[in-house]
Amino acid sequence: MSDRPARPDTSRPRAPEGAGPWRGWRAAAEEALYGPSGFYRRPEGPAGHFRTSVHASPLYAAAVARLLCRVDEALGRPGELGFVDMGAGRGELVGGVLAALPAEVASRTRAYAVELAGRPRGLDHRIEWLAQPPAGIAGLLFANEWLDNVPVDVVEVDAAGTARLVLVREDGSELLGEPVGGEAARWLERWWPLEPEEGLRAEVGLPRDRAWAAAVAGVGRGLAVAVDYAHLAGSRPPFGTFTGFREGRETAPVPDGSCDLTAHVALDACALPGARLLTQREALGGLGVTAGRPPLSLATTDPAAYVRALAGAGEAAELTAHGGLGDFGWLVQPVGIPDPFRRDQSG
Distance from first CA to last CA of the chain, Å, rounded? Predict the structure, then answer.
């Protein structure tokens, strides 16, 4: 019996008149997410619809702060240390990192939140709010669940075995367009080859590769890290991963601004020379996040500390869980410094 996932229902509803033009998913998602009335410009922000590692526990921001301190050390403790939070949402991560840094390091840190939505009220005045990342920083660029929201085109194999661009209207109805060609076809051949079997799907990750390369190019010296739910060559999902999220629940992807539109990231395709991939479980373990329970003796000597430690262990377990956040990929890209994670493996 095959262990291949069941093929999803690919029947497509007839689009009503006035449902808008047919276009590829990349163009449709770009407008639906980032247009004037786009999903990511809503006042509630991403946290109103889904929960990331940043929202799961302050341990995450504290771990990123420790990583920034390692980068600071590798850079020789410069007078200005940059921290860039890509796809910053409402600034939750960058604010948490600043709060967790030692005072001396925080005093030298220049913090940037990169986000298309407007600056939230009450944000720490030390955080610069930008639509594009700064250039030439010395420090850490951190992209937590950013690449999965870089829009991509979806392709599907037709009855003749040809991969074609999936076209969509604003109501979510789909049809198959022209055969995939050019750079998209070459990317698929290299990173996500499709068998000539009707219904197989893939997402063309080329825009993400380029977005990540551009982000890394903004780091003069230091480290760039992308964290996302990912897949690797040899284990790509046969029907793709493109989906929608609304109010914490997965939903059918509809490019009308009502839901998030996302797909897992081919992080191995994004990787530049010198990069390596870790799981979040490995990365956070290397940064001191462990799910070990505190000793029972602490409950007697310091009950309050025991309760705090027990809560922290539970949060660490969620961040590093098998089958959950712990399986996320960390793409680690040093720029002119040694890999800060390598010291965890040295004697």
Answer: 46
User: What CATH code would you report for 39-150+207-290+322-335?
Assistant: 3.40.50.12710
The closest alpha carbon to 163, from 203, 118, 205, belongs to 203
Structure tokens, 155: 């392709």
pLDDT in tens, 299-320: 667 567 656 655 666 676 788 8
Residue labelled with tokens 């479980």: 281
> Residue 329's closest CA among 63, 153, 146, 192?
146
Total residues found in the chain within this entry? 347
**Domain spans in the chain, listed from the N-terminal domain onward:** 23-35+154-202, 39-150+207-290+322-335
Residue type, 328: F
**CB neighbourhood size of 55 (10 A):** 14
Give 48-100 pLDDT, tens digit per residue.
545 677 876 689 999 999 999 999 999 999 999 999 999 999 999 999 999 99
CA geometry: angle at 265 spanning 215 and 6, to 5°?
170
